[in-house]
Amino acid sequence: VLITGESGTGKELIARTVHLNSATRSREKFVVVDVANMPASLLESQLFGHEKGAFTNAHQQHIGMFERANKGTVFLDEIGDFPLELQVKLLRFLQEKMFYRVGGSQPVFADVRIVAATNKNLEEMVRDGNFREDLYYRLNVVRIHLPPLRQRREDIAALIEYFRKKLAQQKGRELVFGENIIRKLQEYNWPGNIRQLKNMMERLYIICPGQEVQESDLVFYSLGNALQPSDPFDGLLDLPIKEARQQLIENFEKRYIRHYLERYSGNISKVAEIIGESREGLSKKIKRYGLKDDDTS
Question: Which of 96, 111, 115, 182 counts the most CB atoms within 10 A of its CB?
Answer without folding.
Answer: 115
